[in-house]
Amino acid sequence: MTENLPLGVLVCDDSALMRNLISRIVDGAEGLTVVGKAMNGKFALQKIPLLKPDLILLDIEMPEMNGIEFLKERRRQGIKVPVVILSSLARRGAQITMEALNLGASDFIMKPSGSISEDIHVVGDQIVETVRAYGSQYRRQTGNVPLVPDSPVSASVMPRPAAPAPTLLREIREKRIDDFPAPRPRHERQLPAGIDLLAIGISTGGPNALRKVFAAMDRELPVPVVVVQHMPAGFTQEFARSLDRISGLEVKEAEEGDLLSPGRVLITPGNKHIRVEKRRLSGIVHLSDDEPVNGHRPSADVLFKSVAAEYGNRALAVIMTGMGRDGAREIGTIHRMGGVTLAQDEESCIVYGMPKVAVDHGYIDHIVKLQDMADTIGRLVRSPSYGG
User: Is the pLDDT reported for residue 153 higher than 50?
Assistant: First the structure.
């Protein structure tokens, strides 16, 4: 009956204040509970076999065994419990975070103000939804049974915690307004006419998903690629470098006026919107500080809208794992203009949010498993027309 148990979280941070603040966020969310805390990686490793968490929230900078050392030992021991990094904004923090992803961490969340963030509640919603996404996937795949504090199996092992203090998370969710238009009848569309540009929109689960896609991508890809990955400023440059090291393509963080060249992948900088402009010899990109769209900057909708206007039926747009609906509206515009549209399938998504909205609205030509995404893209960009 694991589906009736809350997802169990192990919080690993050397700061007692951070452990308590993060635990209050987790315990205050429906369906989640903190099964244990650890002040460093060594204690976390000792607690995993007993507590059997569904997910580990991990700090990087800790005494005795830091986050990187923990991930190396986790890999050596074959521990599969997903790990989400709580990272600081510093440049060195970005480099270490990318190293953590290389070592098997599933994702990361940026602490708002450094390693000890009394305002960690600012990213409380993100923590909760990320834990739910990765923890649920692990539970489905393994049938894991965590040592939940209020379950019969744990009653004699650990004390029941005091009721968590109220949080703003539920209030925030209740105030959200769903303003996305209702599904419409399938629209008339232009005919596709080959592909000159590939645009990708992705969010939660994106760092590792993109690693898999670009590691497998044909190094002779005949079109340029522009990617919107929801990621904070200060991390996208290191993320682009990490992709460049594993891909046969050139991957870089986009700069104002960068050329759209075949085989070049431009990663949108954190906290910037990106638009494309088609020119006679080579397209270019433009960056801006315009207001967030769908709560995001960068926004996939901003990119897709410009792709529809500039490339129309000569574009390939891909919407992948992510919370919410960013990109789902304007991938519909690309579809109406005759562009080819792909969505990652539900099974391989960490969060089937953005793709689901686009699929439900009839905007998607192909639903593709993550492991097939690179091959499907390679086949479509070489098709003289639709390539369905």
Answer: no
Tell me what pLDDT residue 1 has.
55
Same fold, 2-175 and 197-381: yes
Instruction: Label residue 90 by pLDDT band (50, 70, 90).
Output: low
In CATH, the number for domain 197-381 is: 3.40.50.180
Instruction: List the structure tokens of 227.
Output: 């990617």
Report the 10 Å Cβ neighbour count for 234: 19
With contact defined as beta carbons under 8 Å apart, do 206 and 229 qualify? yes
Look at the chain and count its residues.
Answer: 388
Which pLDDT value is given to residue 92? Answer: 73
Three-state DSSP at 26 gives helix
Q: What percent of the chain has pLDDT over 90?
A: 76
Q: Does domain 2-175 have CATH number 3.40.30.10?
A: no
- Residue 230 bears catalytic tag: yes
- CA atoms within a 13 Å half-sphere pointing along the CA-CB vector of 53: 28
Instruction: Give me the sign of the Cα torsion angle 231, 235, 241, 245.
Output: negative
Catalytic residue status for 203: yes
Q: Catalytic: which of 59, 107, 326, 365?
A: 326
166 burial level (CB within 10 Å; 0-12, 13-18, 19+):
exposed
Kindly calculate the radius of gyration of the chain based on its CA atoms and give it in whole angstroms.
21
Q: Catalytic site residue 136?
A: no
Q: Which of 54, 115, 196, 230 is catalytic?
A: 230
* Residue type for position 12: C
For the chain, the domains span: 2-175, 197-381
